Structure formats: structure tokens, C-alpha cells
Amino acid sequence: MLTAANERLTWILTHFEAVYLAVSGGKDSSVMVQLADRVASRLGRKFDALYIDMEAQYAHTIAHIEDLKTLPSIDRFYHVALPMALRNAVSTLQPKWICWDEDERDLWVRDMPDDAICAANCPWEWFHKGMEFEEFVKEFALWYHREKGVPIACGIAIRADESLNRFSTIAFAGRKTELCGLHWTTRIDEGVYNFYPIYDWRCEDMWGAVSQLNLKANEIYELMYKNGLSIYQQRLCQPYGDDQRNGLDQFRALEPETWNRVLNRVNGVNFGNIYCRTSALGNLRTSKPDFMSWEEYTVFLLESIGLYNRDLMLHYYHKIKKFIRWYEKTDGLDPRNIPDEADSRLESRRKAISWRRVARALEKNDFYMKRLSFAQTKSDEAKLRAFVGRWKNFLTREEAQSDKDLMRFLDRYELMEREEAHEHRAHEPQ
Fold first, then answer.
1. What is the largest CA-CA distance in the chain?
2. The pTM is what?
């Protein structure tokens, strides 16, 4: 494996005048760039590196990036900290967030690195705020090609055994154009190629190289291992991505100081601490933070419910929508002017609309939304029956005690189940 990787790096550095390697701070790209440093040193060559800083990173990852910047064969290290749009899987209603957003500077997880390419000094006219990560990567490659004026190669540290998508990137030659028939390369554009020098390595090979070659490593992996994650489970994906639950739990356990800042950075991030229960319809054990308005808190509760149970969130969303439309139709209310709070006596008598009233209904997990003046309907009953049938602990007697209508529902549901079980036994062959 090591010999093959060195041969690929040697081939690239020999055939291309301009080469840069994409670095993430993870073990794969870290090993790749250090192997390239050794090969380049032997050849008397230099190469560049590209690191896209997503702001909400482990402090250990940033420390490791600073360590990699000292590799002698790296000529230009592009430390990019621009306001890009990133996936926010912890929020149902806010699916993207923008890292390094100047408008939210007071919420940044950490200070802007001194040597970073940021909004204030961005040299690229093609960049725009909110640009997607994938779009930036492609535009950077094209710019780098124009800047160098020669064919360029970009090193990517993907391994085929990590996922089917990564395997297909390497394996299916018919779907891509290769360079000189080398299946570990892909033509991106005229004169622009990606190459994958460690594509056939396994996770064990990565750590074997770190150990045997005494390579630099991100210390966060050691903490992950001590926290119970095997080498196959360890990931450095962005904290609000699709593996958000594991990623956010790791932040809290491994870097509590970073966690506190991550917690306040993006909408919906703390759902796990608020809504982590076995039953879905018990009261939410939470209260509105002082820095949130009641409208923001309502959205936060909806998102929290949605990440635990999307169907239940949609049920509440449609109820709230109907509630607001009623006031639009009868009182001519502009939804943009819903007050955060109304007279508390009118709210308790269900005579006034406010975001506080909506939030209180969500806190109570009021399935029928009686606190918003809704009555029980046959469709609600059918929906609740479907939910209870689908999820074993959706509604427990203990948590239904405070709502007589839910208790009556459970009585009816359990009676129906007993009758169905009795009928099923009656039809079983003797």
C-alpha cells in the first residue's frame, strides 16, 4: 500500500508542474499530505495545500492544521475561511447555515485565523456569500488552473472502502475520463485532474502509517478512542451534518469548551438535550432561554420535535398554520405582526393570539392543540392511533395522566387491541 501510494505521488509530482492537496485535518488527508511532503522533498519539488475551514471545528483539528502548515514541501497553504453555506441536519426549518458569517460574528465558535482568506481579503471575484462547499471546490480548481497556466492536479484523500459513493468514484472507469489510463485519476475539466493516491488503503493502513512512519496526527482521534469509538467509527464531519447526533455528543464529551460555543452557533443544535426521551408525548422539560423571543422559541421547539419525530412535528405545524389563518380571516391579522406576548389573562382564556401561547402548547405536547382552541376530530384520532401503532412508546399512561382526552384515547385503543387479539385467537386453528 505504502509503495503504491508513493509511486502515485511520484508520478503526479513528476508529470505536473502545479499540484495542490485538499486537507481536512482528518487522518486520511493528513497521511496523504505527509507522504506527499516526503516524496516532494526527495524530488526537490513543492506543492500547495487547500484547507476549507468550516468554523465549528475541534480545537485539536485546528491545532493539527497549524502543525501541517510547517511541512517543508508546502509552498502556498490556502487556509480558506469564507462565508459558505453548509448542511444543517439538526434543524428541520433551517436546513443550511453560513460559517464565518460577518453578520453573526458575535456567535462565531472561534476567532478568525490570522492567515485566513476571508471575506475581507477574498481575492476571487467568482466567490459569493452562501456559496455551496461543492461549488467552491470546483471553482477553486478552475481558478488554480487559470492562475498557473498549466495542467493542474488536485490530491483527494478518499478511500474506496469508506462508502459506495467513494468506491464508485474510483471503480467505474466508464463513467469518467482518466489520465493516461490511471484509474486513480479523474478528469474534472480541461487541464484539471483529481488524483487519489491512497484510494486502496484501509483504516488500519492509515494508523499503521502514522505509527510506523512517526507521522503527525490529530489528537482528537485519541480522545475519540478513549470515549469508546473504534477506529472505524471515528469521523471528523462537520458537527451539524447528517451524522449530527454522534458528532454533537462527541463535541460535548471531547471538547466541552468548544461544545458550549457550538451549542449557541446554529439553530436546533441542542435538540438532543431537550427532547431525548423514550416517549414522544410527555411534557417538554425545558424553558425559554432569555436570549430567545417566543417566536424563536416556538421554532426551536418545532425543530426539536421534528428531529425526534418528523410526523409529529408536521402535525403540530399544520395545526399552528390553521390557528394563524383563523386570526388572519376573522381579525385581519398580518402573520408578520403576531405579538410575542399578549395579556396573560386573555391567553389563558384562549382569547388572544401570541407566540407565547403557541410555545406553551408545544411545551405541553398538546396533541389535539386544545390550548389553541382546537377540538378533537376524527382525523386526529386516526392519526394518533396510527402513531401509537407505529411507535411502541409514543404515548404512555404515565405521561397521559395530565390530559383526560389522551387517557380516554388510551382506554379505547387498549380495548380495541384486546378485542382484536381475542378475535385473532378465535380464528386460530385448534
1. 86
2. 0.64
